[in-house]
Structures are given as C-alpha cells and as structure tokens.
Design a protein that fits this description.
Blueprint lengths: L1 H26 L15 H14 L3 H7 E2 L3 H4 L15 E2 L5 H14 L2 H28 L9 H7 L6 E5 L8 E7 L2 E8 L2 E3 L3 E5 L18 H11 L2 H7 E3 L22 E2 L5 H15 L4 H14 L5 E6 L8 E7 L2 E8 L2 E7 L20 H15 L4
Parallel strand pairs: 1-3, 8-10
Antiparallel strand pairs: 2-3, 3-4, 4-5, 5-6, 5-7, 7-13, 9-10, 10-11, 11-12, 12-13
Helix pairs in contact: 2-5, 6-7, 8-10
Length: 393
C-alpha cells in the first residue's frame, strides 16, 4: 500500500513536471501547437467575420470611403501624428453611429488579445483626456508664447473620435486583405493572408503615460512596456551594461518608427547568448509584452518564428540613464523576426514592434513594401502650410 502511494505520488509529480514543461515551452514560442486550432477560432477567421459585419453596418457612401485597394501605397499610408497634420484615408470613429462603433470594436477585439485591445482603447481614452486638458489650457491661458498658429487645431484634433479605420481589399471574398486603425499615438496594421494573421507594424504611444490627477490618478494604458525594459537593464552586470548601453543621450523619436521601415540597425548592444538564463528570461518576457498584444494564435506563430531564428540571436541595446524608470530612456530589441523600440520622455512614450521579414505580411504575399513618409516629414510639411498662410488652408 505504501509502495503504491509512493508510486502514485511520483506519477503525479512526473505528470505535473511534463505539464509545466509543455506550458513553459509554449510560452517561449518553442513548441508547435499539437492540436490544431479550430478554424472558426483563429484570429484570421474571427477578424474576417467581424470585418464583414462591420462593413455591412455601413451605408454605401461610407463603404466607398473606407474600402481601398489592397496595395502598397494604401497600406503604408499611416502615421502617429495628430489628424490635423495627416488627413488619413478612411472613416473616423466620430463619423460612425453608435451601432457602427460597436461593430468597429468587435473588429478590434477579434484582431487582438484582451491585453492588446485594452491598450489600444486605453490610448484612445488617454488622447481624449489629453485633448480636453489642452483645450482647457488654451481657454484659460491663451496660446503658448512660441506663437504656433496651429495650437487650437492641434488640441481639437485629439480624442477618440479622430481615430481612423480603413480596410484594404474585400474580407468577404476569400482573398488576402488587411485593415488599419490609426491616429495620434497609434498605428495598428493587420494582414490576413491564406488564413494567417500579421499584426505588424504596431505603433502605440501615450501622453500622459500615467494620469497624475483626478479620480483615475495612477492609471496608465501602457503600464509594462517601460518596466520590462528597465528590469532587464537593471539585471545586467556592469560589464554587460557597458556593451548594451550605446549612448547616454536617448533619441526623442524611434529610429525604426513611421516611414523608417528600412532603418534597421543590426547587431547593436548585447547579444542574448551573452546573457545568463535569468536575463534571457527577462528578455523573453519583454518580447512577449509586445507580441501578445495580438490574438493567441498570431502571437504563438510569431514567437515560434523568433524561436526558429534563435532566441540567443536577439540583441538588446539601451540609450540614456539607468537609474530612473520615469526618466528619459530608449531601448531596442532586434532579431531576424522581431524589432521592438521604445523611447520615453517625461510621462510620454512611443513604442513600435515590427517583423523585419514580414511587416504587412510582405513575406507571405511575396512583396517588398516601402514606407515613403515619416511622421516628421508629415509634421514639417503641415506646419509649413500653417506658418505660410496663417492657418488659412
């Protein structure tokens, strides 16, 4: 009896160990899914169904203004600058009815994990708060002393109603298609190709990053992006930090941000194979913070792609100080199948995640897509118009 109990106990321990190992490997993207996901549960199928339902909620004129050809020029026309700078193609949330907005949110939820959906909608809510505060400050104190002629236009362009949706191709035709949601501090591009889902490029930013006043003081839409990078830099030993840290002065923008798809510096910083097991774990946690914004099957496929090229072949670099997680800083994670960048100014961050080999699903589609205009290009061109005609444009 005692022997049987001991064997039973050992069997339970062995089973638990196997289960833990399976979960761990899956979490690291190192294991293929043994049981195929039912077709109707895949993000591609759910996204397509939600897109068809959303389009059916629109009028004929609205559909003409939101559906575009599935081509390079249309799909790469996105930016994170305010709408007064970049008048995006598509329909704004503010132009939709309540029922249409509900259908749009169904499409968002079908395209992302719960974490990703909360981040995107959180960015939209933060932008509404930012807009209200900016307008109140203008009404209270008047224009800033720098005399920018576009201050009120800029403030009025902030908010959830200014985010724009566009669909590329026909989701109801069993062909490849895509869609984008974009606006201030956001550009999320999705691709459906042969039943697979792409979710890059994905740009998310926030100002304020953390609300400092009111009943929601302390709330943040992007709460872990800085933390995960800061945890890793803190875990590095002095000799490792000297390799990882590239500059004491971090950039204000993202070197691989909007319009800079081809600006992918290679092999900067500390390679993962020079990290301890604990440090490599923190690196994987950081990567998953970004990848798991997509739905479960798209995230698993992306993590598997990273694993196939080797987690040990990722590189981590840092710019800026390492003492204050709220201070100015920048980090990059780069590999063959992942590129992550984050830059932080006081209570203000920009982030981007790309797949260098498959942004916009270009590898699946046998295409090479380029991005013509950066956010800076668009902003400078728009401001020049305001400065030359006093805003009478």
């Amino acid at each position: 009896m005692k022997i049987a109990n001991i064997l039973d106990k050992h069997a339970r321990i062995l089973f638990t160990g196997f289960a833990f190992a399976a979960v761990s490997l899956t979490a690291l993207g190192q294991q293929r899914i043994v049981s195929p996901t039912p077709l109707e549960s895949t993000s591609a199928q759910q996204m397509t169904k939600a897109a068809v339902a959303f389009l059916s909620s629109l009028s004929e004129l609205q559909r003409e203004n939101i559906v575009y050809e599935f081509n390079e020029e249309n799909r790469t026309n996105w930016s994170n600058v305010p709408i007064f700078v970049h008048h995006r193609p598509g329909l704004r949330f503010g132009e939709l009815t309540n029922s249409q907005r509900r259908a749009a949110h169904e499409l968002l939820r079908a395209s992302m994990s719960s974490q990703g959906y909360q981040k995107i909608t959180g960015v939209m809510r933060l932008d509404s708060i930012h807009g209200s505060r900016s307008l109140a400050e203008l009404d209270r104190e008047g224009p800033a002393e720098d005399g920018r002629p576009y201050q009120r236009e800029e403030a009025e362009s902030f908010g959830s109603g200014s985010y724009v949706l566009a669909i590329f191709g026909n989701p109801d035709s069993n062909t490849n298609w895509g869609w984008v949601i974009q606006g201030h501090h956001m550009g999320a591009s999705f691709t459906v190709a042969d039943g697979r889902t792409g979710f890059t490029p994905l740009f998310l930013g926030a100002t304020p990053l953390v609300l400092e006043q009111g009943i929601y003081a302390g709330w943040s839409a992007l709460s872990h992006e800085v933390t995960r990078g800061f945890e890793l830099i803190q875990a590095l030993k002095p000799d490792q930090r000297s390799i990882a840290i590239q500059d004491e002065d971090p950039p204000n923008g993202l070197p691989a941000g909007v319009g800079r798809k081809g600006n992918l510096a290679e092999h900067q910083g500390l390679q993962a194979n020079a990290m301890t097991a604990e440090q490599q774990h923190l690196l994987r946690v950081l990567v998953e913070e970004y990848v798991r914004n997509s739905d479960f099957d798209a995230a698993a496929a992306q993590l598997e792609a990273i694993a196939e090229t080797g987690w040990e072949n990722l590189w981590f670099s840092w710019e800026g100080q390492t003492n204050d997680p709220t201070g100015r800083l920048f980090y990059r994670v780069q590999g063959e199948r992942i590129l992550i960048e984050l830059t932080q100014r006081p209570n203000h961050i920009h982030t981007i995640v790309r797949d260098p080999a498959n942004d916009y699903g270009e590898h699946w589609l046998n295409q090479i897509l380029t991005e013509e205009y950066s956010s800076g290009d668009r902003f400078e061109a728009a401001i020049q118009i305001y400065e030359t005609d006093d805003g009478n444009h």
